[in-house]
């Protein structure tokens, strides 16, 4: 994995300081020179980091005064919101919120995939499910999660909508983490295999409404498993 640029590293450090409360929402941002020293970067790098966080609604420019840190509810950048959601103290709530978003996005994606899928798409889905079965039997959670993500990615791509692909990309890392949390439970993996087979069969049949309903059932099962077997 390529190393983040100095500017991105400064963005992440500054954002983490806001998320963990070292820098407080609603208060003025310390001077850029002070932040540059604290985070061991140049003033130019810190100025660019502040500018990037302004673009995400995390930092607000106040005319005639120092910048102010916005409350989380006002943040508009997906990267910042997802980083906050992945932080300590937010994981349980964010995992439920992620499922709600997935329900809205992936049910529609499954419907489109059923109507637009190719034979190659079906082969990719079948292969991903086959590997999920193998990895479940071997209790290889990491490999199971990887195949699970590939299955869902194949559905998104089979839907043939570029905006859909771009919209779901920022959620990928967060999805990988929550999948690992649930897939560590053997009973949940068994449920997932049943649900994925149902979704694949519906997409293969080419009936959009059935694929949408199968995915909705899968998302609901995942929600119920998360609440009863992970968060309980």
From TrEMBL:
Gene3D superfamilies: GntR ligand-binding domain-like, Winged helix-like DNA-binding domain superfamily/Winged helix DNA-binding domain. The keyword Transcription regulation applies. GO terms for molecular function: DNA binding; DNA-binding transcription factor activity. Keywords: DNA-binding, Transcription, Transcription regulation. Residues 4-72 form the HTH gntR-type domain. It holds the Pfam family GntR. InterPro entries: GntR_C, TF_FadR/GntR_C, Tscrpt_reg_HTH_GntR, WH-like_DNA-bd_sf, WH_DNA-bd_sf. PANTHER family: TRANSCRIPTIONAL REGULATOR, GNTR FAMILY (PTHR43537), UXU OPERON TRANSCRIPTIONAL REGULATOR (PTHR43537:SF5). This is Transcriptional regulator, GntR family. It comes from Agrococcus baldri.
